[in-house]
Amino acid sequence: MRDSTDPREPGFRESVDLMFNRAAALMDLSPGLEQKIRVCNATYIVRFGVRLRGHIHTFTGYRSNHSEHMEPVKGGIRYAPVVNQQEVEALAALMTFKCALVEVPFGGAKGGLCIDPREWEPYELEQITRRFTYELAKRDLINPSQNVPAPDMGTSEREMAWMADHYARMNTTDINARACVTGKPLNSGGIHGRVEATGRGVQYALREFFRHPEDVKKTGLSPGLDGKKVIVQGLGNVGYHAAKFLAEEDGCKIVGIIERDGAVHDEAGLDVVAVRDWIGRHGGIAGCPVGEFIEDGDALLEHECAILIPAALEGVINLSNAERVQAPLIIEAANGPITFGADEVLRQKGTVIIPDLYANAGGVTVSYFEWVKNLSHIRFGRLQRRAEEAHHLLLIEELERLSADRNLGWELSPDFKSRYLRGAGELELVRSGLDDTMRIAYQSMREVWLGRDDVHDLRTAAFIVAIERVAASYRAKGL
Ligand code: NAD
Fold first, then answer.
1. Could you say which DSSP state residue 41 is in?
2. How many angstroms separate the most distant Cα atoms in the chain?
3. Fewer CB within a 10 Å sphere, N or C end of the chain?
4. Which H or E run includes 133?
């Protein structure tokens, strides 16, 4: 990653605050309420020891609750060596505004553990995760009605299953124990479509953007996603799914994939699945035979393309490289990939940025569906699917009867019949709910972006919509 040593570059937490301030300055909030919404309510630091490999190792974990105007508070838990208080607080703040923007009824939180998961065996990670869960649970920092974590960088379904199981062991009579975390595997109370949700949300966000010719015009790009050249940074959960869906379903050409140890490039389009497969088998992208390998991966961030998708970590586009970034459209799949300083530079250049608050909200949206599923103890679609199919069959049979009785010679195509007859299962319902959420949230942001003379970018618009909703919540129920 190109580190910015520019003294004008703020830290991650300050960067989020500056973005908040830029929007709040255009709003009519009392100074007291503005400050209440800006600050992080509480950050807890836990330190615990685990005996591993014959030694006691001390780990440091964080959970930050940014705003409890709605509960539970929600936000992922990240495993990375550089996790720190600034970072979790910035990410927790983003969660508050993200949930408000996509109308998910949660407050914002985030957690992290200072650890490099690649240094530990799975059974050791399980011990560490279970101990971390214990530390969080005894302080109600994981709880189905108060605080619900999810996966983030360095964590996945596997860690969520350990956390859910450990919480359930500590709370044997809590019938809703499984709702204490989301992003669990299906067999542990998860939901279809959660693993892909954030990447799928990025795809839906781009589709919605391209539905509005006036918005696309601001980028200077031609209409439609088909054939667009895309560069993705980070082929983890979010980046992989976004790139795969955009290539397979929307005709995009993934011309560059950047990882921590290099990048691959091919103007004709890369095989995303093959690259992911290589990374899975070799632990990195170095030496990947798909496309041309480039050692200085970050250089590709500055390469010509239509859409740039930073999907790895924060601060990767900063004052050291923003001026040279050529993509006219950037969609922030990661949280905070563009620093406040870089954001100013890009805005001056006319780059359109679809902000993280909105772009990666697919994960928390489907987490919300999973939490509702856990509390209702029934899979979505279980009651209505076959009834829906029977209802559709009535219509098909009636059409066929009419055609036969009156010698009309109508014949429904077999493809139409089978597609029309299929009732919606959980995955279809989850995708429908996610698509609806991404469309509506984009429109609320867009209304402010295009409707106000003093708002010139989608990020400020997103913050205005979100802050107004949090403010309305405080005004309605008090502090
Ligand atoms: P992940 O751990 O699955 O993937 C991250 C990927 O980025 C990995 O492949 C890693 O090797 C790569 N990477 C790390 N450092 C890099 C660097 N310096 N340069 C290039 N690549 C690098 O994590 P994820 O869950 O996909 O999360 C990625 C981003 O998306 C984070 O900012 C996270 O907060 C955000 N996010 C994730 C979710 C989710 O549901 N997982 C939801 C919302 C936002």
1. -
2. 84
3. C
4. helix 122-137
The answer to whether the pTM exceeds 0.85 is yes
pLDDT above 90 covers what percent of the chain? 96
Q: How many CB atoms lie within 10 A of CB 229?
A: 18
- Whether the per-residue pLDDT at 439 is higher than 60: the answer is yes
> Which residue of the set 110, 228, 229, 253 is catalytic?
110
Determine contact, residues 97/364, Cβ cutoff 8 Å: no
Alpha helices per DSSP H over 61-115: 85-101
Please choose, from the candidates 357, 475, 470, 469, the residue with its C-alpha nearest in 3D space to the C-alpha of residue 67.
470
How far is it, in rounded angstroms, from Cα 79 to Cα 113? 5
> Tokens representing 388?
């829906």
From CA 341, how far away is CA 319, in angstroms rounded?
6
Rounded Cα distance between 456 and 156, Å, is 37
Residue type present at position 234 = G
Task: Give per-residue pLDDT as tens, 22-67.
Answer: 999 999 999 999 999 999 999 999 999 999 999 999 999 999 999 9
CA–CA distance, 449 with 471 (Å, rounded to integer)? 20
Mind listing the pLDDT tens digit for each residue in 240-290?
Answer: 999 999 999 999 999 999 999 999 999 999 999 999 999 999 999 999 999
Q: Which helix (H) or strand (E) holds 254?
A: strand 253-259
Ligand 1 centre and the CA of 87: distance in Å? 14
The reply to whether ligand 1 has any atom less than 6 angstroms from the CB of 196 is: no
236 CA closest ligand 1 atom index? 4
Q: How many whole angstroms from its chain centre is CA 192?
A: 16
Q: Which helix (H) or strand (E) covers residue 233, if one does?
A: strand 229-233
Q: Please name each of the domains of the chain with its CATH number.
A: 42-188 (3.40.50.10860), 192-384+424-479 (3.40.50.720)
d(CA 237, CA 276): 10
- Give distance in angstroms: CA of 154 to centre of ligand 1: 8
CA dihedral (308, 313, 314, 319) in degrees, to 10, reads -50
Q: Is the CB of 243 under 6 A from ligand 1?
A: no
CB neighbour list of residue 478: distance below 8 Å, 6 or more residues apart = none
Q: Provide the residue type at 427 as one letter.
A: L
Burial 433-460 (b: 16+ CB within 10 A, else e): bbbebbeebbebbbebbeeeeebebbbb
Would the CB of 320 count as within 6 Å of ligand 1? Answer: no
Q: How many CB atoms lie within 10 A of CB 198?
A: 32
Report yes or no: 4 and 315 within 8 Å, Cβ to Cβ.
yes
- End-to-end C-alpha distance for the chain, whole angstroms: 41
- Whole-angstrom Cα distance, residue 80 to residue 178? 25
Examine the residue annotation and report whether 110 is marked as an active-site residue of this protein: yes
Closest CA to 46 of 27, 63, 31, 30: 63
